[in-house]
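This week, study the protein below.
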Amino acid sequence: MAWFKREKKGISTLTEEKKEAPDGLWNKCPNCKKALHSADLTENKYVCHYCDFHIRVGSKEYFQVLFDDNQFTELFPNLKSGDPLHFTDSKPYTERLVDSIAKTGLNDAIRAAHGKIEGEDLVVACMDFTFIGGSMGSVVGEKIARSIDYSIEHNIPFMMISKSGGARMMEAAFSLMQMAKTSAKLALLSQAKIPYISLLTDPTTGGVTASYAMLGDINIAEPGALIGFAGPRVIKETIKKDLPKGFQTAEFVLEHGFLDFIVDRRAMKSKIAKFIRMLKK
């Protein structure tokens, strides 16, 4: 039975000879806590094999899921936020931006791209929660506005993937102005009769929910996504009542008529392509 029982004593392995698993090889599902191999997770569109939990991902992963062969042209990649208010909290806003850029490799909380989805042209603007909580600042609003202009100019459907904690407080009124700015641009898109698809992911809250996230020709969401204006804790403290079970989940919002449907990430590409083809007829 020596194949599993160590019979010799005093055996030791030098530190440099120890075999370690490479970083990033395994992940853990936040919901069921089971181990997930990175390659399998990527193949399954970043959805847990065991409980179907949709793991939070960013623009890189969404572009990979949606665009054919992960081929796309990034639009307006070099836009960066300024500091018009010279804002300082625990540290200056300029330092926070530099740290976020270095940490995430992103220039701001959104990326936009033009590519094909099952052969159909599509412009996608996707938010990244890892960049200051996906907060909506002036660059987010500007990139959305320019992406809409690009869609109108080239007559291409526009898709917005929202993932945000809301307005970026370090830009104050400049941030809040983006709600009106993006809504006005979407009105122009509607006048041009170009489809707008809004995908709400976990989480979509604050001023983003109150503006472009809910203005789609179709509003769709991923299963279990948190969708709301204020957070559940704030609402509970305000109304002094317990909230319904599942409050502000995608399923709750769908039941109350604010969504058209919920789509599994693994079926998202085919459903969006089908919708685009249907509107072209």
Q: What stands out?
A: The chain has nine helices and nine strands. Residues 172-191 form the longest helix (20 residues). The first strand starts at residue 26 and ends at 28.
